Automatic annotation (TrEMBL), chain A:
Its main location: membrane. Keywords: Cell membrane, Membrane, Transmembrane, Transmembrane helix. The keyword Transmembrane applies. The chain crosses the membrane at residues 35-61, 94-110, 122-142, 147-164, 170-190, 197-213, 265-283, 314-334, 346-379, 391-407. Residues 4-107 form the High-affinity branched-chain amino acid transport system permease LivHM N-terminal domain. This is High-affinity branched-chain amino acid ABC transporter permease LivM. GO terms for cellular component: plasma membrane. GO terms for molecular function: branched-chain amino acid transmembrane transporter activity. It comes from the Bacteria. It holds the Pfam family BPD_transp_2.
TrEMBL record, chain B:
It is a multi-pass membrane protein. This is High-affinity branched-chain amino acid ABC transporter permease LivH. The chain crosses the membrane at residues 20-38, 45-64, 70-90, 102-121, 154-174, 203-226. Keywords: Amino-acid transport, Cell inner membrane, Cell membrane, Membrane, Transmembrane, Transmembrane helix, Transport. NCBIfam families: PRK10740.1. The keyword Membrane applies. InterPro entries: ABC_transp_permease (IPR001851), BCAA_transport_permease (IPR052157).
TrEMBL record, chain C:
Belongs to the ABC transporter superfamily. The gene is livG. Residues 2-250 form the ABC transporter domain. One of its GO terms (cellular component) is plasma membrane. PROSITE patterns: ABC_TRANSPORTER_1 (PS00211), ABC_TRANSPORTER_2 (PS50893). The keyword Heme does not apply. This is High-affinity branched-chain amino acid ABC transporter ATP-binding protein LivG. InterPro entries: AAA+_ATPase, ABC_AA/LPS_Transport, ABC_transporter-like_ATP-bd, ABC_transporter-like_CS, BCA_ABC_TP_C, P-loop_NTPase. PANTHER family: CONSERVED COMPONENT OF ABC TRANSPORTER FOR NATURAL AMINO ACIDS-RELATED (PTHR45772), HIGH-AFFINITY BRANCHED-CHAIN AMINO ACID TRANSPORT ATP-BINDING PROTEIN LIVG (PTHR45772:SF11). CDD domains: ABC_Mj1267_LivG_branched. One of its GO terms (molecular function) is L-phenylalanine transmembrane transporter activity. Keywords: Amino-acid transport, ATP-binding, Nucleotide-binding, Transport.
């Protein structure tokens, strides 16, 4: 046993060296047309060696280490507590959400312009993640092409404003409905596929849409994208220094205050906040409605659900369409915030980030998803050196979550419908 | 005559790319056949194979080793070793702990692994694409005079022949060796195989290692063929190879070969007659159509749903 | 009301069901019996639309239903249970019954989002119906428990209640007594008879428990190796030589 353990530990250490040294320790560099090899600095080499030693020691004493870890008291203080009664949990959740919204309302008036701008992005991600959460978390459909619907929303607004001068407020419902229609049309044929095939097919659709946006140059501007997307207006008041469209007034003149570019940023932030809150509330309702129960039933046991008269296609399609709808919403806000969009913003990686948010937050759990969206968007901004490692850490986190806590950081707590005792 | 020569040129290009796709597709198809999961990170293993090969070739050039066959063989061996170790480690870290859980969990883990590996190479080697020296140059020309000529480069022949050799070795291995027999047993019924005393964990690890080794071969070949590599270069190739595997019938090794060739040819025909930009659209479209209308692929066995 | 004519089902080279026929009249309990692997569940799977039969006809209320999608057949009023209970284990008992009423509650999304009075009324109605059936099968006290945590016998009863809230006209029960103790089997026996007597439901039953079958069936169909072997009243089947041979002899 001991020798076998030693051999295994040695093997693991060698594998560690083999997979890390050539890639980390020998760097290819292009010098003109030539490629030369340079050795990495000593710290990298030493870390690689240390990693191999660490793996060796861990594998050698694996049983003992795991045994000790198992005996350690759980880190979370809540781990051993009885679950809260549902009513109390609900009240706590509502209170938390209300606090979050109030904080969100005060935020733009105390924070810097850059911070508010970033917060708008966070809110967009919250919308996206909440929408994808319906598809992945509630209905159990892995959609890897979610970003396509986001693109549909954004491009709808960009194109409508470019060709027809349509305003943000009109484009918002149109973008969302168009995205939903896309979801419906794409979903219709593919939703009878099994889970993992569905994931790949949606990934394919997402890529096709991106390639089309990239190559349909006459309409979409191809890789150059579309610029000059207008900001939203407030009852016909524009936020620019000068009024762009005839008949509109400008915000700062109407109220007789000095022009400040901050007004626009704050206004956009508030719009995003309202939309995010609406998204959260609507989805919360949906979860308690028959359609929400149907999603769950189909996720738990498709055959039983079908035997009770639930149409697999109709139920899955509703989730897919609703998810797409909210992505369209988010897309419109994104286009307006950026003022410029290009296919760059709608690559697969973006889908993966949104999926990572949903997975980290705990599939199905709204609060979890909101917190994860905040963390995932803000952390790389807080620590610049961290941002380079962002995707690396995302990838690792996704794997670790699946291995240790597939239910996510804040697992979903089901809200039961209670049958009251009839006296 | 002109048109025919042009057509043959596209066909040759397609078969070249297609046979390399087939090599990558083997990894998807074997893993799917045995544990029923899509190894989403397989494209990255292939990319790492290509990087290792380039590192080795550059290293050998620095050391002054110039004899081409030796350079290629050493590069191939190094790439295979690194990729296989990576395949083994990935299975051990990201897939084995989640095996047997709900279908989406291994898949999400695999996506995470794919993102991780992409960025691992990106951070270590930079995001720019790096030129891959064309070690095998020259070729045959068909067609005469100043008209359009069909050419087959030695590189294309190398790709084709190497693929053929790998596939033959693989079929011999699967049908003759002990491990190969165990592989087949495990893919038929994993529970029964383990009752019969087959170490299923070892067999599953072996499929990952074999798949990764073949992907490394493809990495070296396609790296040379395309002339440059970057950290994202595995992602699309992986999707293409997965398409090839599904097209041929996932789980079937001859199917992967057939699927790879069909995909390669349809891609090069699209580039040749339509536009290079839409070749990805064609292969994704093909994937979607196959999954919708014949999810078992061309050579796959039907699955019967049970209650 | 239900007529199955020459039903066949082939999987590749295996003919699992070969020319099986049976019919069910209003308010009748018909059993399908046969040795293990005789193809009984396959017949059920064809009838409930889970498999598309390779031959023959299934006529329900004068309509051919073979090959129709399963959820359509269920909505026409033919609902089944499963050999291995299939509940929505993480949902509560009462929620299991609410899901089953989904098609009755096909309210549009807007009225649900706004909680219109009409929507509330319908939700309340379905809760009432669920409560009624829970009372009926004796699970009312467990209404807010997770269905997956119930005892096996309770799960079986819940599965039947879940079918009944859909207001079926024909109930297909796949080995409802499997895994039950004698007392529970007696209760089940009474429940099935009362479904017929009090709720005008016809029942098709697959069962191994002969005492149950003989006691409550109006007619019995025996199949063996996918082929029909005998059919008739319990008395006739009990005395049929082929049946006795299939069950006792040759084995």
């Amino acid at each position: 046993m001991a020798t076998q353990n030693l051999r295994h530990a040695l093997f693991c250490a060698v594998v560690t060296l083999v997979i890390s040294y050539p890639i980390l320790g020998l760097n290819l560099e292009a010098w003109g047309t030539n490629v030369v090899l340079t050795g990495a600095n000593t710290t990298t080499v030493i870390s690689v060696l240390l990693a191999a030693v660490a793996v060796f020691l861990f594998q050698l004493f694996r049983d003992r280490i795991m045994g000790t870890l198992g005996k350690l008291p759980p880190i979370s203080p809540f781990a051993n507590r009885e679950p809260m009664p549902q009513a109390k949990w609900e009240r706590l959740k509502s209170a938390f959400l209300t606090l979050l919204i109030i904080a969100g309302l005060i935020w733009p008036f105390v924070a810097s312009r850059g911070a508010v701008d970033l917060s708008t992005l966070v809110l967009i991600y919250i919308m996206l993640a909440l929408g994808l959460n319906v598809v992945v978390g509630l209905a159990g459909l892995l959609d890897l092409g979610y970003v396509a619907f986001y693109a549909v929303g954004a491009y709808t607004f960009a194109l409508l404003s470019q060709y027809f001068g349509v305003s943000f407020w009109l484009a918002l419902p149109i973008g969302a409905l168009l995205a939903a229609t896309f979801g419906f049309l794409l979903g219709f044929p593919v939703l009878r596929l099994r889970g993992d095939y569905l994931a790949i097919v949606t990934l394919g659709f997402g890529e096709i849409i991106r390639i089309l946006l990239n190559n349909w140059t006459q309409l979409t501007g191809g890789p150059n994208g579309i610029g000059g997307i207008p900001d939203p207006t407030l009852f016909g008041m524009e936020f620019g220094r000068r009024v762009r469209e005839e008949g509109n007034t400008s915000f700062h003149e109407t109220f007789g205050i000095a022009y400040s570019s901050e007004h626009k940023v704050i206004f956009l932030y508030l719009i995003a906040l309202v939309l995010a809150v609406i998204t959260a509330l609507v989805i919360r309702r949906l979860m308690r409605m028959p359609v929400g129960r149907a999603w769950e039933a189909l996720r738990e046991d498709e055959i039983a659900a079908r035997s009770l008269g639930l149409s697999r296609t109709a139920v899955k399609l509703s989730a897919f369409t609703i998810g797409a709808f909210f992505a369209g919403f988010a897309g419109t806000v994104f286009a307006s915030k950026q003022g410029f969009i290009s296919p760059e913003s709608f690559v697969f990686l973006e889908s993966a980030i949104i999926l990572a948010i949903v997975v980290l937050g705990g599939m199905g759990s709204q609060i979890g998803v909101i917190l994860a969206a905040i963390a995932v968007t803000i952390l790389p901004e807080l620590a610049r050196e961290f941002s380079e490692y962002r995707m690396l850490i995302f990838g690792a986190a996704m794997v670790l979550m699946m291995v240790w806590r597939p239910q996510g950081l804040m697992p979903m707590r089901r809200t039961h419908i209670e049958l009251k005792k009839q006296e | 005559m002109q048109d025919l020569l042009y057509f043959f040129q596209q066909l040759i290009n397609g078969l070249t790319i297609g046979s390399a796709y087939a090599l990558i597709a083997i990894g998807y198809t074997m893993v799917y056949g045995i544990i029923g999961m899509i190894n989403f990170a397989h494209g990255e293993i292939y990319m790492i194979g290509a990087y290792t090969a380039l590192i080795t070739i550059t290293g050998l050039a620095t050391l002054g080793v110039a004899w081409l066959p030796l350079v290629l063989i050493i590069a191939l061996i190094c790439a295979m070793i690194v990729s296989s170790s990576m395949g083994w480690a990935v299975e051990r870290i990201a897939y084995r702990p989640v095996r047997g859980r709900h279908r989406l969990i291994p898949l999400i883990s695999a996506i995470g692994m794919s993102i991780f590996l992409q960025n691992y190479v990106h951070l270590a080697q930079g995001s720019r694409n790096i030129g891959f020296p064309a070690l095998i140059e020259g070729g045959f020309q068909f067609g005469s005079g100043d008209a359009f000529q069909t050419s087959i480069s030695y590189m294309q022949i190398t790709i084709f022949v190497t693929t053929l050799i790998c596939m033959t070795l693989l079929s011999l291995f699967i049908s003759r060796s002990r491990t190969g027999r165990a592989c087949r047993a495990v893919s038929q019924d994993i529970g029964m195989a383990s009752l019969l005393g087959i170490d299923t964990n070892r067999i599953i690890a072996a499929t990952f290692v074999i798949g990764a080794a073949l992907a490394a071969v493809a990495g070296l070949l396609l790296g040379m063929y395309y002339g440059s590599i970057d950290p994202l270069f595995g992602f699309i190739a992986g999707l293409k190879a997965f398409t090839a595997a599904v097209l041929g019938g996932i789980g079937s090794i001859p199917g992967a070969m057939l699927g790879g060739l069909i995909l390669g040819v349809s891609e090069s025909m699209t580039s040749g007659y339509l536009s290079g930009e839409y070749k990805d659209v064609v292969s994704f479209g093909l994937l979607i159509l196959i999954l919708l209308f014949k999810p078992t692929g061309l050579l796959g066995k039907p699955e019967v749903e049970k209650i | 009301m239900l007529e199955v004519k020459n039903l066949s089902m082939r999987f590749g080279g295996l003919l699992a069901v070969d020319q099986v026929s049976l019919d069910v009249q209003e308010r009748e309990i018909v059993s399908i019996i046969g040795p293990n692997g005789a193809g009984k569940t396959t017949v059920f799977n064809c009838m409930s639309g889970f498999y598309k039969p390779t031959g023959g006809q299934i006529i329900f209320d004068g309509q051919e239903i073979q090959g129709k999608p399963d959820y359509r057949i269920s909505r026409m009023g033919m609902v089944r249970t499963f050999q291995h209970v299939r509940l929505f284990g993480k949902m509560t008992v009462v929620e299991n019954l609410l899901v089953a009423q989904h098609r009755h509650l096909n309210t549009n999304l807007i009225s649900g989002l706004l909680k219109t009075p009409n929507y509330r009324k319908r939700e309340q109605k379905s809760l009432d119906r669920a409560a009624y059936w829970l009372e009926r099968v004796g699970l009312i006290d467990l209404a807010n428990r997770e269905a997956g945590n119930l005892a096996y016998g309770q799960q079986r009863r819940l599965e039947i209640a879940r079918c009944m809230v859909t207001e079926p006209r024909l109930l297909m029960l796949d080995e409802p007594a499997a895994g039950l103790n004698p007392a529970e089997t007696r209760d089940l026996n009474q429940l099935i008879v009362s479904l017929k007597e009090d709720y005008n439901v016809s029942v098709v039953l697959i069962e191994h428990d002969m005492s149950l079958v003989m006691e409550i069936s109006d007619r019995i169909n025996v199949i063996n190796q996918g082929r029909p072997l005998a059919s008739g009243t319990p008395e006739e089947v009990r005395n049929n030589d082929d049946v006795i041979k299939a069950y006792l002899g040759e084995a």
